[in-house]
Design goal:
By secondary structure, this protein is mainly β. Helix content is 12%, strand content 35%. The two termini are 24 Å apart.
């Protein structure tokens, strides 16, 4: 699954990349690593003309509970194979599609009894386009509208199966030529079951002690632990 992500691109880079306007004062503080369980704001691309800040962890419009974190922690990801059948997502598949720009994400490889963290990042671009769904929920106590999203996941490609070797899942990453079709709704959800090519991805081990610290949102979080980069068919 995808529970740790990064977003270090500048607003102007996102504007050019996705041909979107940037709202005034849109926060572009670099996120080198952040857990989805922080339920914080990320810059998201929709069919709207501008980049939209949304919280990670989808709150369905119909939700009437008192603790939004209880449902958000269950909707950080959505399996693309079953998303059209799930109450939280099925009404969004045809209309509320989005892209979550990512400059790399993190996964853990199980080796014996140890877990080793890896940073996975684009080989030829500065950003991944992760496919997602979003919804708008109204807080009945304040009347505020909260926009939230979930990242779609699929079966892992060869690279991700070696790294995320327990669940063997990965984010649904869009090729650049599919981004517009995804947002418009003309790309069938079933097409996302085919994983993004491992030939377009790099990965390397990162420093575990830094990642699990309370002060991990630093550039060093993405640096190789042993100066080793994964290439298809070869680890170290």
């Amino acid at each position: 699954m995808c529970y740790s992500n990064s977003s270090t691109s500048k607003n102007i880079e996102l504007s050019k990349r996705y041909k979107k306007d940037i709202p005034t004062h849109l926060d572009e503080t670099p996120i080198y690593i952040q857990s989805g369980f922080a339920f914080s704001k990320w810059r998201v691309i929709t069919e709207e003309a501008y980049v939209t800040p949304m919280n990670w962890g989808l709150i369905p419009a119909w939700y009437n509970g008192s603790d939004t974190k209880e449902i958000s922690k269950l909707t950080l990801n959505a399996r693309v194979e079953t998303v059209a059948d799930k109450p939280s997502f099925k009404h969004l598949v045809s209309s509320n599609r989005c892209i979550i720009p990512s400059t790399g994400f993190f996964e853990w490889k199980l080796t014996g009894k140890s877990k080793i963290p890896y940073f996975i990042f684009p080989k030829h671009d500065f950003v991944f386009s992760m496919a997602g769904l979003y919804d708008s929920w109204m807080d009945s106590t304040t009347g505020n509208i909260v926009n939230t999203f979930s990242i779609l996941t699929c079966e892992a490609n060869q690279l991700m199966a070696e790294i995320h070797n327990t669940k063997k899942r990965m984010p649904c990453i869009l090729n650049s030529e599919s981004e517009s079709d995804w947002l418009k709704g003309s790309l069938a959800i079933e097409q996302l079951c085919v994983p993004f090519s491992e030939n377009k991805m790099n990965a390397h081990e990162v420093q575990k002690s830094l990642l699990v610290s309370s002060d991990n949102n630093r550039p060093e979080a993405q640096l190789p632990a042993f100066n080793a980069t994964y290439e298809q068919g070869k680890l170290f």
